[in-house]
Amino acid sequence: MPSHDILTHITALADQAADIAIAPDADLGGTRIATAIWNSLTQTAQKRSVICDIGMTPTHTPQEPWPPDSPVWADLRTMLSSPAAALASGCLTRGYPVEQEGCIVEAMIAHLHTEAKAQ
Prior knowledge:
By secondary structure, the chain is mainly alpha-helical. The protein contains six helices and two strands; from the N terminus they run αβααβααα. The relative contact order is 0.20.
């Protein structure tokens, strides 16, 4: 989890940005980190922000699924009422974690392409 100092720094940077993409790992920890970052942002910055599910990128490497009795399932379901609800939903649908390092570039290119089409 990002420290208070890191969240303060992220908030200051976000206040200067035109658009903000929060793209953590697509797993329980990532949903918690994304929520912490989102909650640290000003309301104005939140309006310019999106939490990305990097697991939606077809280039990620599928992982071993979480065991059926893993508490991860219940914990992700609680995140469905958080700002990272779409990310949590994607994690639950896939059933396994996706590390951002393997596909972050492709995920951000896809995000930017989608944003450009929307404008």
